[in-house]
User: What shape does this take?
Amino acid sequence: MRALKIGVIMDPIGKIDIEKDTTFVLMLEAERRGHAIYTMGLDDLSIRGATPEGRFRRVSVARATPHYRFRDEGSGPLSDFDVILMRKDPPFDMKFFFATHLLSLVDERKCLVVNHPLGLREANEKLYALNFPEIIPKTHVASDIGQLRRFMEEMGGEMVIKPLDGCGGSGVFYLHHKDRNLPSLLETATANGSKAIMAQRYIAEVRKGDKRIMVLDGEPLGALLRVPREDENRSNLHVGGKAVKTDLTARDREICRILAPNLNKLGLYFVGLDVIGNYLTEVNVTSPTGVQEINALNKVRLESRIIDFIEKRAAALRKN
Assistant: This one.
């Protein structure tokens, strides 16, 4: 097929971990196929009139030191790209929010944006799962400390709390009614009752692992199990969780089937689902990762299937 011009909106490429970063292997695979890769940050985006534009640099990547080499620089309309990958890592802050509005002005008849900016705005990674109450643990979202404490008692005296705008396990706490720190933890988490947080029933199966399922176009690509350290409640890899090989269960596939129509409607083509036991806990849409870990555990190359999908979608735009 014709070589694509692919823009990647991401964190500074010099700071990524090439052994773990999913964006890096997507760029590697795209370049291997002859596509031209350009990087941008959020500060490189602008709007002239109603035309979204960017400053960008063409880049070559490799598993080497250094792992990238910049070539020519340029600027111009974002719609001149065949594909834009929105791969800026969380948190989802106001800068990210405004960037999604800018990306909504990209001409969809010419350029494929993955994930779609509307979907990025609509699907808060904590709250979006509430659209599927039949497959999530019992949940309560509130800023009122009294409500949260009553919910905890309803859950048997323990629960997990998390900030609505957090990422990577930041601000996630396991709470127990016998902990003398409980009042202080709730005050801190809610900014003394002024900030809503999410509380969920504690799922004991988390000690066996938190499963990350990579989903492409509504279909599961693969999964890994993130097992927490003995001295840690969180299973996120960057806080010491261990990546363990796992299989997709019938329940995992059922969860994917339930979500697929909604994800595809919002243009959320590439997402990461977090599943503990039989329950969906989060839907990661901004910059889902886990591809390299799944590759290593299963001797596969998921990035090949992802780029196949991108090429197919981009080719369909050119025919219209």
Remarks:
- The domain at 138-202 is CATH 3.30.1490.20 (Dna Ligase; domain 1).
